[in-house]
Amino acid sequence: MIALLALALAQDDIRPIKPAVGAVASPPIWPWLAGLAVLLVVGALSVWAWRRWHTTPGRSPEELLRDRLAEAGRLRDAGEHLASADAVDAALRAFVAATTDLEALAATTDELLPALEGRLEPEVHARLVELLTACDHVRFAARPVDVAVDEAWLDALIAGLLPTPHTAETAP
């Protein structure tokens, strides 16, 4: 073995078997960064446009509540009990959130109802308890409960939660 090594060192004409491989340059990163920037801009503009066109400026919380409950009624009539219960629950919670300082959309039913107890007439509060509990039963226990909202109760709820001109002027 030492002889072979000595023989290899003694030769003047040692050539590699394969040619040397050149260093491969990595592709430039700026096109990737530019593409990412374009995607972020397009995404931000899409979110902005969606939010702008899906909000309803100038509509009162009462109008939105009535429209959403009408849609829930159409879903109930079509036999979509789960979607109807979700729509009733979402409409009532959005109305409470828009007309009070409560975070009704993030609160559970057990958190929301005691917070509304002093703000509503006892009969209106009792019906709200029934409705939100029925919505929970449909959503979580799959019970086909009717979650229809009658107009007289709806008017009482709106009157109880919407600020009157007298209370709006005295509020800080």
**So what's the overall shape?**
elongated
Span between termini:
99 Å
Number of strands: 0
Strand proportion? under 5%
Topology:
Blueprint: H1 2-10, H2 30-54, H3 61-77, H4 81-99, H5 109-116, H6 122-141, H7 151-161, H8 165-170
Helix pairs in contact: 3-4, 4-6, 6-7
What do you see in this structure?
Residues 165-172 have low confidence and may be disordered. The protein has eight helices and no strands. The protein has helices at residues 2-10, 30-54, 61-77, 81-99, 109-116, 122-141, 151-161, 165-170.
Write a brief caption for the model.
With 172 residues, the chain is mostly helical. Helices cover 67% and strands 0% of the residues.
Provide key terms for this protein.
172 residues, mainly alpha, 8 helices, 0% strand, disordered C terminus
